Amino acid sequence: GAARSYAAVDLGATSGRVVVGRVGRGELTLTEVNRFANVPVRLPSGLHWNLPGLFTGILDGLREAARTAPAVTSVGVDTWAVDYGLLDADGALLGIPYHYRDARTATVAPQVRDKAGAQELYTVNGLQHLPFNTVFQLAAARDTAQLAAAEKLLLIPDLLTHWLTGSVGAEVTNASTTGLLDARTGEWSRDLAARIGLDPALLPPLRHPGESAGELLPHIVAATGLAAGTPVVTVASHDTASAVAAVPLTAPGGAYISCGTWSLAGLELPGPVLTEASRAANFTNERGVDGTFRYLRNIMGMWLLEECRRVWAARGEPSELASLLADAARAEPFAAVIDPDAPEFLAPADMPAAIAETCVRTGQRAPASRGALVRCVLESLALAHRRVLRRAAALAGRDITRIHLVGGGSRNDLLCRFTADATGLPVIAGPTEATALGNILVQARADGLVGDLAEMRQLVADTQELRHFEPSGDLRAWDAADARVVTAP
Ligand code: LFR
């Protein structure tokens, strides 16, 4: 049959985009119709997302999408995980959703963990401990007027879908990042909710990728020019789940790193790993499409570099990526290495200073130039990729023979090369827009245009540009550097 079009709304921590995907037999092409900055806003209450501003960018994008041919068949929404908005009894949003980097959970998270029991939590929800998991954000909100007035909790993509369609639901891949979903049953754990004093009635019915999430509301149709009755299809609304769905894992032995603001490094598994060793290593069991599990760890990712560039730009210093990477390529190897996951890198005001302080505190010299600092970040990320993937393989009892690096970070040759060299494994880089592709492909599948997950991935492998990085073969320098990393507890 003829090719069909779908619109993907994909919001990341630093930018949002609306992408139109054309899918046909042996055809999969993306056109970005709008990209807009995602700039968080600091208010007296803390750090928040500018959600109405983002919604405007979405509508602008959908208006562009409505002008493309063939006409858009459906729309799907994915964003980052864990964050949420609360609706009151009238369906109005209560307050402005918090950004997961807001500091209010820092003291609450360990308290909840100690009270509920880290092991007990993990055997139920299988989730890595991150201070901003929804369950900890809700514990921090416990005595607030907003939570008292709340009728429903909607995760960010579900909230945007609600604004587009009026429907209320909780998409399951993203629900698995809240800490309130039972990893074994895939249902909300009312027991966990009760344990943190949360009314389980706040949690909407679950919905699964491929199901309908309603039709565009009349005023959205009028504002965008999309056809009346255009459905919003439930996609893997956690961006990482969409990205993993589009990783061209066409043979056994493949691991993935979804590399953007975060590096999410791990394996796709048929079931969760809920062992004590897995908990101690802080691995997560997040849900993927078709009942798969994303067994992975968050690594702080390109956030370190993005934040350095933001600080340099604000000071009027050079911050252009290509020339920073060229400087990094010429800088001295392994001059300093850090653990990118140290808590001091989660939300520092001045990332270059935070990195320099950590180097000094761990008995190394502070990087002497911007190029040296970028090299330190990229080598340290490659070492973190290596530690996490080796650990994942050991904990899941799998062999890794190659690494798929997808997302914006796959454009970074130096990071791809370092990751291949550090692990001693070939790295297949791309697709860069894995998240948007995964979003589009789940819609195309709901539309009957592609088959199962394997077929979706084969289409990605056949149509998208992938680049291969062979490891240098000499691991000694990387072994020595890894031994110098002082890892955060
Ligand atoms: C990546 C991501 C990660 C999640 C983090 C916070 O964009 O969704 O998977 O841990 O953002 O939500």
TrEMBL record:
SUPFAM superfamilies in the cross-refs: Actin-like ATPase domain (SSF53067)
Domain of life: Bacteria
Carbohydrate kinase FGGY N-terminal domain boundaries: 6-244
Domain Carbohydrate kinase FGGY C-terminal: 255-446
GO biological process, one term: glycerol metabolic process
Keyword Transmembrane attributed: no
Keywords attached to this entry: ATP-binding, Disulfide bond, Kinase, Nucleotide-binding, Rhamnose metabolism, Transferase
GO annotations of cellular component type: cytosol
A GO term for molecular function: ATP binding
InterPro entries: ATPase_NBD (IPR043129), Carb_kinase_FGGY (IPR000577), FGGY_C (IPR018485), FGGY_N (IPR018484), Rhamnulokinase (IPR013449)
PANTHER family, per the entry: L-RHAMNULOKINASE, SUGAR KINASE
Family under the similarity heading: Belongs to the FGGY kinase family.
Protein name, per record: Rhamnulokinase
